[in-house]
Amino acid sequence: MGKLMRLLRLLNLSLLVLYPLSWFAPLMRAGLLPLFGLSEISVMTGLQSLWSSSMFLAILVALFALVAPYVKTIGLALIHTGRIGPRLKPVLDGLGRLAMADIFLIALYITITKGIGVGRIEVAWGLYLFTFCILTSLFISCKTQQSMHFGHG
Q: Which of 108, 24, 27, 104 is nearest to 66 (CA)?
């Protein structure tokens, strides 16, 4: 196995730990007025809140924000270890595209809330970790695809 593939494999395996950490890490702190304390919002607290208002939407968001990227990461780990062949790669790419929707939703939420002018939002370290996980997964996927096409790594 080449150096690049070893690096991709190590990065990918690290995502199996970093993804769950990012789901519980604070993405942002939000408050209604500047004088009041800020509540921390994570992927999990967001899902809990969504669950109380719409179970269907909560399940849908959980599939795209948690299940899709994690299944893709496991699939890439199986490709890197030779347990499954590259035929499954297009399915994993599709899962990766679906998983990018959560970054858009978070950005939209921040933009809308700041535009209202009533509330206050501060970005927290978990948003950077969550974004890192998704961008790293995209990088690993692209480089894995290239190495499979060109036969080097």
A: 24
CA atoms within 13 A on the CB side of 99: 25
User: Does residue 124 lie within any of the structural domains?
Assistant: yes
Render each residue's pLDDT in the chain as its tens digit; 153 residues: 689 889 999 999 999 999 999 999 998 887 766 556 678 888 898 888 888 888 998 898 888 888 888 988 998 898 888 888 767 777 777 777 777 666 666 665 666 566 556 667 788 899 889 889 988 988 998 888 888 766 544
Dist CA 136 CA 74 (whole Å): 14
- Number of domains into which the chain is organized: 1
Q: Tell me whether residue 144 is in a domain.
A: yes
- Report yes or no on 80 lying in a domain: yes
Tell me phi and psi for residue 2, to 5 degrees.
Answer: -75, 170
> For residues 16 and 40, what is the distance between their CA atoms, to the nearest angstrom?
24
Write down the pTM of the prediction: 0.78
CA distance 83 to 92: 15
11 within domain boundaries: no
Write out the residue range of the structural domain in which residue 94 sits: 68-148
